[in-house]
Amino acid sequence: MKRILPFVIIALVLGAGLFTARYLQRASSENPKPVLTPSASPVATRSTGNPGEPGAEPAHALGDAKAPVTLEEFGDFECPPCGVLHPILKGIETEYGPAKVRIIFREFPLVPNHVHALAAARAAEAAGLQGRFWEMHDMIYEHQKEWHEAFDVRPIFEGYAKNIGLDLKQFAGDINSEIVERRIFLDGKRAHSLGVQGTPTVFLNGNEVPFESLPPEKLKPLIDKELAAHP
Amino acid sequence: MSSVNETDRPGLARRAAILYGVIAFVSLIGLADSIYLTVEHLSGRSVRCTITSGCSEVLSSPYATVRGFPLAGIGAVAYFLVFSLATLAAFGYGMVGKLLTFIVAAMFLTTLWLLYLQAFVIHHFCQFCLVSALVTTTLTVLVSYTQLKLSRR
Questions:
Q1: Are B36 and B128 a contacting pair, CB within 8 Å?
Q2: What is the C-alpha to C-alpha distance for residues A179 and B52, in angstroms, rounded to an integer?
Q3: What is the ipTM metric for this complex?
Q4: pTM score of the predicted model
Q5: Is residue A42 scored above 50 in pLDDT?
Protein backbone atom coordinates (compact mmCIF):
# COMPACT_ATOMS: atom_id res chain seq x y z
CA MET A 1 0.00 0.00 0.00
CA LYS A 2 2.83 2.37 0.89
CA ARG A 3 4.33 1.89 -2.57
CA ILE A 4 1.08 2.90 -4.28
CA LEU A 5 0.16 5.80 -1.98
CA PRO A 6 2.49 8.44 -3.55
CA PHE A 7 1.04 7.71 -6.99
CA VAL A 8 -2.47 8.08 -5.58
CA ILE A 9 -1.52 11.45 -4.05
CA ILE A 10 0.05 12.61 -7.32
CA ALA A 11 -3.06 11.57 -9.29
CA LEU A 12 -5.30 13.39 -6.79
CA VAL A 13 -3.24 16.59 -7.07
CA LEU A 14 -3.28 16.35 -10.86
CA GLY A 15 -7.06 15.95 -10.81
CA ALA A 16 -7.48 18.84 -8.38
CA GLY A 17 -5.21 21.03 -10.53
CA LEU A 18 -7.15 20.30 -13.71
CA PHE A 19 -10.46 20.87 -11.93
CA THR A 20 -9.24 24.20 -10.52
CA ALA A 21 -7.99 25.33 -13.94
CA ARG A 22 -11.34 24.46 -15.49
CA TYR A 23 -13.21 26.26 -12.71
CA LEU A 24 -11.07 29.40 -13.01
CA GLN A 25 -11.41 29.38 -16.77
CA ARG A 26 -15.19 29.19 -16.55
CA ALA A 27 -15.30 31.86 -13.88
CA SER A 28 -13.19 34.24 -15.93
CA SER A 29 -14.64 33.80 -19.39
CA GLU A 30 -18.13 32.45 -19.09
CA ASN A 31 -18.99 33.95 -15.75
CA PRO A 32 -22.57 34.64 -14.94
CA LYS A 33 -23.32 36.16 -18.30
CA PRO A 34 -25.09 34.11 -20.96
CA VAL A 35 -23.14 32.89 -23.95
CA LEU A 36 -23.54 34.88 -27.13
CA THR A 37 -26.35 33.49 -29.20
CA PRO A 38 -27.74 34.53 -32.56
CA SER A 39 -31.22 34.72 -31.10
CA ALA A 40 -30.32 37.55 -28.76
CA SER A 41 -32.52 40.61 -29.08
CA PRO A 42 -31.09 43.79 -30.53
CA VAL A 43 -31.00 46.04 -27.50
CA ALA A 44 -28.35 45.54 -24.85
CA THR A 45 -30.72 45.64 -21.93
CA ARG A 46 -33.29 43.25 -23.37
CA SER A 47 -31.50 40.05 -24.04
CA THR A 48 -30.19 39.25 -20.57
CA GLY A 49 -32.17 38.67 -17.46
CA ASN A 50 -29.93 41.24 -15.81
CA PRO A 51 -30.11 44.64 -17.51
CA GLY A 52 -27.74 46.08 -14.93
CA GLU A 53 -27.47 49.61 -13.63
CA PRO A 54 -28.08 52.25 -16.31
CA GLY A 55 -24.58 53.78 -16.24
CA ALA A 56 -23.76 57.39 -17.08
CA GLU A 57 -26.43 59.14 -19.14
CA PRO A 58 -26.25 59.99 -21.91
CA ALA A 59 -23.82 57.22 -22.79
CA HIS A 60 -20.99 57.93 -25.19
CA ALA A 61 -22.36 56.29 -28.31
CA LEU A 62 -21.54 56.19 -31.99
CA GLY A 63 -24.26 55.11 -34.40
CA ASP A 64 -28.00 55.11 -34.63
CA ALA A 65 -29.91 54.39 -31.42
CA LYS A 66 -32.12 52.05 -33.51
CA ALA A 67 -29.18 50.15 -35.00
CA PRO A 68 -29.85 46.38 -34.80
CA VAL A 69 -26.46 45.71 -33.21
CA THR A 70 -25.11 47.44 -30.12
CA LEU A 71 -21.55 46.88 -28.96
CA GLU A 72 -20.99 48.16 -25.45
CA GLU A 73 -17.36 48.27 -24.38
CA PHE A 74 -16.12 48.60 -20.81
CA GLY A 75 -12.63 49.94 -21.27
CA ASP A 76 -9.60 51.22 -19.46
CA PHE A 77 -7.51 53.66 -21.50
CA GLU A 78 -4.27 52.32 -19.99
CA CYS A 79 -4.92 48.61 -20.54
CA PRO A 80 -2.86 47.25 -23.46
CA PRO A 81 -5.55 44.83 -24.77
CA CYS A 82 -8.02 47.77 -24.83
CA GLY A 83 -5.52 49.64 -26.98
CA VAL A 84 -5.45 46.63 -29.32
CA LEU A 85 -9.26 46.52 -29.44
CA HIS A 86 -9.53 50.22 -30.33
CA PRO A 87 -8.62 49.94 -34.05
CA ILE A 88 -10.77 46.80 -34.31
CA LEU A 89 -13.87 48.67 -33.17
CA LYS A 90 -12.95 51.63 -35.39
CA GLY A 91 -12.79 49.23 -38.33
CA ILE A 92 -16.19 47.77 -37.47
CA GLU A 93 -17.67 51.25 -37.13
CA THR A 94 -16.40 52.15 -40.62
CA GLU A 95 -17.31 48.83 -42.25
CA TYR A 96 -20.85 48.46 -40.95
CA GLY A 97 -21.83 52.11 -40.60
CA PRO A 98 -24.03 53.86 -38.02
CA ALA A 99 -27.31 52.38 -39.29
CA LYS A 100 -26.21 48.82 -38.50
CA VAL A 101 -23.85 49.01 -35.53
CA ARG A 102 -23.94 51.25 -32.49
CA ILE A 103 -20.84 51.45 -30.32
CA ILE A 104 -21.00 52.54 -26.68
CA PHE A 105 -17.97 53.21 -24.50
CA ARG A 106 -18.14 52.85 -20.72
CA GLU A 107 -15.41 53.88 -18.36
CA PHE A 108 -13.86 51.12 -16.26
CA PRO A 109 -10.43 52.37 -15.15
CA LEU A 110 -8.52 49.63 -13.32
CA VAL A 111 -7.27 51.67 -10.41
CA PRO A 112 -4.71 51.41 -8.82
CA ASN A 113 -3.10 48.90 -11.19
CA HIS A 114 -3.05 51.39 -14.01
CA VAL A 115 -1.85 54.56 -12.37
CA HIS A 116 -2.90 56.90 -15.19
CA ALA A 117 -6.16 55.16 -16.12
CA LEU A 118 -8.33 57.41 -13.98
CA ALA A 119 -6.64 60.58 -15.26
CA ALA A 120 -7.22 59.34 -18.82
CA ALA A 121 -10.87 58.59 -18.09
CA ARG A 122 -11.28 62.06 -16.58
CA ALA A 123 -9.64 63.69 -19.59
CA ALA A 124 -11.98 61.84 -21.98
CA GLU A 125 -15.05 62.67 -19.90
CA ALA A 126 -13.98 66.33 -19.62
CA ALA A 127 -13.64 66.43 -23.41
CA GLY A 128 -17.10 64.88 -23.58
CA LEU A 129 -18.51 67.88 -21.72
CA GLN A 130 -17.40 69.95 -24.71
CA GLY A 131 -18.82 67.42 -27.18
CA ARG A 132 -15.42 65.95 -28.10
CA PHE A 133 -15.40 62.67 -26.19
CA TRP A 134 -14.64 60.43 -29.17
CA GLU A 135 -11.87 62.69 -30.45
CA MET A 136 -10.16 62.53 -27.05
CA HIS A 137 -10.95 58.79 -26.74
CA ASP A 138 -9.19 58.14 -30.05
CA MET A 139 -6.28 60.42 -29.22
CA ILE A 140 -5.68 58.75 -25.83
CA TYR A 141 -5.84 55.21 -27.23
CA GLU A 142 -3.72 55.97 -30.27
CA HIS A 143 -0.97 57.46 -28.11
CA GLN A 144 -1.32 54.97 -25.26
CA LYS A 145 2.31 53.89 -25.34
CA GLU A 146 3.54 57.49 -25.17
CA TRP A 147 1.68 58.64 -22.07
CA HIS A 148 1.63 55.27 -20.34
CA GLU A 149 5.31 55.63 -19.40
CA ALA A 150 5.05 59.29 -18.37
CA PHE A 151 5.31 60.40 -14.77
CA ASP A 152 2.87 63.30 -15.12
CA VAL A 153 0.21 62.79 -17.79
CA ARG A 154 -1.69 65.99 -17.18
CA PRO A 155 0.31 68.20 -19.61
CA ILE A 156 0.10 65.41 -22.22
CA PHE A 157 -3.69 65.26 -22.01
CA GLU A 158 -3.84 69.07 -22.07
CA GLY A 159 -1.81 68.88 -25.28
CA TYR A 160 -4.39 66.46 -26.74
CA ALA A 161 -7.16 68.81 -25.61
CA LYS A 162 -5.46 71.66 -27.44
CA ASN A 163 -5.04 69.52 -30.57
CA ILE A 164 -8.72 68.64 -30.76
CA GLY A 165 -9.73 72.26 -30.21
CA LEU A 166 -11.05 72.23 -26.66
CA ASP A 167 -11.42 75.30 -24.47
CA LEU A 168 -8.40 74.60 -22.27
CA LYS A 169 -9.59 76.65 -19.32
CA GLN A 170 -12.88 74.77 -19.21
CA PHE A 171 -11.09 71.45 -19.76
CA ALA A 172 -8.75 72.10 -16.82
CA GLY A 173 -11.76 72.83 -14.60
CA ASP A 174 -13.91 69.97 -15.85
CA ILE A 175 -11.26 67.31 -15.45
CA ASN A 176 -11.67 67.39 -11.66
CA SER A 177 -15.37 68.25 -11.65
CA GLU A 178 -18.03 66.34 -9.82
CA ILE A 179 -19.95 65.61 -13.00
CA VAL A 180 -16.94 63.87 -14.56
CA GLU A 181 -16.33 61.95 -11.35
CA ARG A 182 -19.98 60.93 -11.25
CA ARG A 183 -20.04 59.70 -14.85
CA ILE A 184 -17.05 57.44 -14.19
CA PHE A 185 -18.66 56.22 -10.99
CA LEU A 186 -21.96 55.44 -12.73
CA ASP A 187 -20.24 53.53 -15.54
CA GLY A 188 -18.30 51.58 -12.93
CA LYS A 189 -21.54 50.84 -11.11
CA ARG A 190 -23.03 49.48 -14.32
CA ALA A 191 -19.91 47.40 -14.93
CA HIS A 192 -20.13 45.83 -11.48
CA SER A 193 -23.87 45.19 -11.84
CA LEU A 194 -23.15 43.26 -15.05
CA GLY A 195 -20.33 41.29 -13.44
CA VAL A 196 -17.52 42.92 -15.45
CA GLN A 197 -14.21 41.83 -13.96
CA GLY A 198 -11.58 43.06 -16.37
CA THR A 199 -11.01 45.05 -19.49
CA PRO A 200 -11.82 45.08 -22.26
CA THR A 201 -15.24 43.55 -21.77
CA VAL A 202 -17.62 43.89 -24.69
CA PHE A 203 -21.32 43.16 -24.76
CA LEU A 204 -23.00 42.47 -28.07
CA ASN A 205 -26.71 43.17 -27.75
CA GLY A 206 -26.44 42.54 -24.05
CA ASN A 207 -24.46 39.32 -24.21
CA GLU A 208 -20.82 39.28 -23.23
CA VAL A 209 -18.47 38.49 -26.07
CA PRO A 210 -15.74 36.11 -24.87
CA PHE A 211 -12.35 37.82 -24.98
CA GLU A 212 -11.02 35.30 -27.46
CA SER A 213 -13.82 36.27 -29.89
CA LEU A 214 -12.79 39.94 -30.07
CA PRO A 215 -10.36 39.68 -33.01
CA PRO A 216 -12.18 41.03 -36.11
CA GLU A 217 -12.30 37.68 -37.91
CA LYS A 218 -14.31 36.26 -35.00
CA LEU A 219 -16.26 39.37 -34.00
CA LYS A 220 -17.60 40.11 -37.48
CA PRO A 221 -19.37 36.75 -37.90
CA LEU A 222 -21.08 37.37 -34.54
CA ILE A 223 -22.24 40.79 -35.72
CA ASP A 224 -23.38 39.29 -39.05
CA LYS A 225 -25.43 36.69 -37.20
CA GLU A 226 -27.13 39.40 -35.17
CA LEU A 227 -27.80 41.43 -38.30
CA ALA A 228 -29.27 38.37 -40.01
CA ALA A 229 -31.49 37.68 -37.01
CA HIS A 230 -32.66 41.31 -36.87
CA PRO A 231 -32.71 42.63 -40.43
CA MET B 1 12.44 3.02 -10.21
CA SER B 2 13.83 1.26 -7.23
CA SER B 3 12.36 1.52 -3.83
CA VAL B 4 14.65 3.18 -1.43
CA ASN B 5 15.37 3.56 2.11
CA GLU B 6 18.88 3.19 0.91
CA THR B 7 19.84 3.60 4.51
CA ASP B 8 18.85 1.35 7.30
CA ARG B 9 18.70 4.20 9.69
CA PRO B 10 15.02 5.00 10.27
CA GLY B 11 15.84 8.46 11.74
CA LEU B 12 17.46 9.59 8.51
CA ALA B 13 14.66 8.18 6.39
CA ARG B 14 12.11 10.00 8.54
CA ARG B 15 14.04 13.28 8.24
CA ALA B 16 14.27 12.86 4.46
CA ALA B 17 10.55 12.16 4.29
CA ILE B 18 9.80 15.33 6.24
CA LEU B 19 12.09 17.49 4.10
CA TYR B 20 10.69 16.11 0.84
CA GLY B 21 7.19 16.53 2.24
CA VAL B 22 7.88 20.20 2.88
CA ILE B 23 9.25 20.54 -0.67
CA ALA B 24 6.10 18.92 -2.05
CA PHE B 25 3.91 21.27 -0.03
CA VAL B 26 5.80 24.40 -1.15
CA SER B 27 5.59 23.28 -4.77
CA LEU B 28 1.79 23.14 -4.41
CA ILE B 29 1.80 26.90 -3.73
CA GLY B 30 3.73 27.43 -6.96
CA LEU B 31 1.38 25.07 -8.79
CA ALA B 32 -1.71 26.98 -7.63
CA ASP B 33 -0.11 30.30 -8.56
CA SER B 34 0.92 29.17 -12.02
CA ILE B 35 -2.46 27.56 -12.75
CA TYR B 36 -4.11 30.87 -11.91
CA LEU B 37 -1.61 32.76 -14.10
CA THR B 38 -2.12 30.36 -16.99
CA VAL B 39 -5.88 30.78 -16.89
CA GLU B 40 -5.53 34.57 -16.67
CA HIS B 41 -3.11 34.54 -19.57
CA LEU B 42 -5.42 32.44 -21.71
CA SER B 43 -8.40 34.65 -20.87
CA GLY B 44 -6.26 37.54 -22.11
CA ARG B 45 -7.85 40.10 -19.87
CA SER B 46 -6.22 42.92 -18.01
CA VAL B 47 -6.88 41.95 -14.41
CA ARG B 48 -6.65 43.76 -11.14
CA CYS B 49 -3.48 43.29 -9.16
CA THR B 50 -3.53 44.29 -5.52
CA ILE B 51 0.15 44.91 -4.76
CA THR B 52 2.08 45.65 -7.93
CA SER B 53 0.82 47.45 -11.02
CA GLY B 54 2.30 45.54 -13.92
CA CYS B 55 0.27 42.35 -14.30
CA SER B 56 -1.25 43.20 -17.66
CA GLU B 57 2.05 44.55 -18.99
CA VAL B 58 3.91 41.39 -18.00
CA LEU B 59 1.18 38.94 -19.01
CA SER B 60 0.61 40.61 -22.39
CA SER B 61 4.34 40.95 -23.14
CA PRO B 62 5.95 38.75 -25.80
CA TYR B 63 8.00 37.08 -23.04
CA ALA B 64 4.84 35.57 -21.54
CA THR B 65 4.67 32.90 -24.22
CA VAL B 66 7.07 30.34 -25.64
CA ARG B 67 6.11 29.39 -29.20
CA GLY B 68 2.54 30.41 -28.45
CA PHE B 69 2.37 28.42 -25.23
CA PRO B 70 1.89 30.39 -21.98
CA LEU B 71 5.05 30.46 -19.90
CA ALA B 72 2.90 30.10 -16.80
CA GLY B 73 1.63 26.79 -18.19
CA ILE B 74 5.20 25.54 -18.47
CA GLY B 75 5.66 26.69 -14.87
CA ALA B 76 2.60 24.68 -13.81
CA VAL B 77 4.04 21.57 -15.44
CA ALA B 78 7.39 22.17 -13.71
CA TYR B 79 5.77 22.64 -10.29
CA PHE B 80 3.71 19.50 -10.80
CA LEU B 81 6.87 17.58 -11.66
CA VAL B 82 8.56 18.91 -8.53
CA PHE B 83 5.54 17.92 -6.45
CA SER B 84 5.46 14.42 -7.96
CA LEU B 85 9.19 13.80 -7.51
CA ALA B 86 9.24 15.19 -3.97
CA THR B 87 6.24 13.02 -3.05
CA LEU B 88 7.95 9.95 -4.45
CA ALA B 89 11.15 10.83 -2.61
CA ALA B 90 9.21 11.34 0.62
CA PHE B 91 7.86 7.79 0.27
CA GLY B 92 11.33 6.36 -0.16
CA TYR B 93 11.90 6.51 -3.90
CA GLY B 94 15.32 8.02 -3.36
CA MET B 95 16.54 7.75 -6.96
CA VAL B 96 14.36 10.70 -7.98
CA GLY B 97 16.34 13.08 -5.72
CA LYS B 98 18.91 13.92 -8.38
CA LEU B 99 16.27 14.57 -11.03
CA LEU B 100 14.44 16.79 -8.55
CA THR B 101 17.63 18.77 -7.92
CA PHE B 102 18.21 19.19 -11.65
CA ILE B 103 14.65 20.43 -12.32
CA VAL B 104 14.67 22.86 -9.40
CA ALA B 105 18.05 24.24 -10.52
CA ALA B 106 16.67 24.79 -14.03
CA MET B 107 13.60 26.50 -12.55
CA PHE B 108 15.76 28.76 -10.41
CA LEU B 109 17.86 29.85 -13.39
CA THR B 110 14.69 30.54 -15.38
CA THR B 111 13.34 32.55 -12.45
CA LEU B 112 16.47 34.72 -12.41
CA TRP B 113 16.05 35.34 -16.13
CA LEU B 114 12.38 36.26 -15.71
CA LEU B 115 13.16 38.63 -12.84
CA TYR B 116 15.76 40.30 -15.06
CA LEU B 117 13.15 40.67 -17.84
CA GLN B 118 10.61 42.21 -15.49
CA ALA B 119 13.12 44.62 -13.95
CA PHE B 120 15.10 45.74 -16.98
CA VAL B 121 13.15 44.93 -20.13
CA ILE B 122 9.43 45.10 -19.35
CA HIS B 123 9.94 47.57 -16.47
CA HIS B 124 6.93 46.18 -14.65
CA PHE B 125 6.46 43.53 -11.99
CA CYS B 126 3.55 41.11 -11.81
CA GLN B 127 2.80 40.09 -8.24
CA PHE B 128 1.87 36.54 -9.21
CA CYS B 129 5.19 36.15 -11.02
CA LEU B 130 6.96 37.42 -7.90
CA VAL B 131 5.14 34.81 -5.80
CA SER B 132 6.37 32.16 -8.23
CA ALA B 133 9.92 33.53 -7.96
CA LEU B 134 9.70 33.37 -4.17
CA VAL B 135 8.41 29.77 -4.28
CA THR B 136 11.16 28.67 -6.67
CA THR B 137 13.82 30.33 -4.52
CA THR B 138 12.42 28.60 -1.44
CA LEU B 139 12.42 25.28 -3.30
CA THR B 140 16.04 25.84 -4.32
CA VAL B 141 17.06 26.46 -0.71
CA LEU B 142 15.06 23.46 0.54
CA VAL B 143 16.38 21.06 -2.11
CA SER B 144 19.97 22.23 -1.57
CA TYR B 145 19.59 21.81 2.20
CA THR B 146 18.02 18.36 1.77
CA GLN B 147 20.73 17.14 -0.59
CA LEU B 148 23.42 18.50 1.71
CA LYS B 149 21.92 16.85 4.77
CA LEU B 150 21.43 13.50 3.06
CA SER B 151 24.85 13.42 1.42
CA ARG B 152 26.61 14.06 4.72
CA ARG B 153 25.18 10.93 6.26
A1: yes
A2: 30
A3: 0.78
A4: 0.55
A5: no
pLDDT averaged over chain B? 83
Chain B residue numbers with beta carbons less than 8 Å from the beta carbon of A10 are 83-84, 87-88
List helix spans (H) across B1-153: 10-43, 55-59, 71-90, 96-116, 127-152
What is the rounded CA–CA span in Å between residue B37 and residue B32? 9
Rounded to an integer, the average pLDDT of A63-71 is: 92
pLDDT in tens, A99-130: 999 999 999 998 777 889 999 999 999 999 99
Interface test with B, best of A3, A28, A76 (most B CBs within 10 A): A28
Distance of CA A228 to the CA centre of its chain: 25
Flag whether pLDDT at A24 surpasses 80: no
Residue of A nearest to B90 (CA): A6
pLDDT at A31: 41
Q: Tell whether A76 lies on the interface with B, counting CB pairs under 8 A.
A: yes
Contact list in B for residue A80 (CB cut-off 8 A) is 46, 56-57, 60
Contact A17 B31 (CB under 8 A): yes
User: Cβ of B35 and A115 within 8 Å?
Assistant: no
Mutate to test the interface with A, among B14, B46, B63 (most CBs of A within 10 A): B46
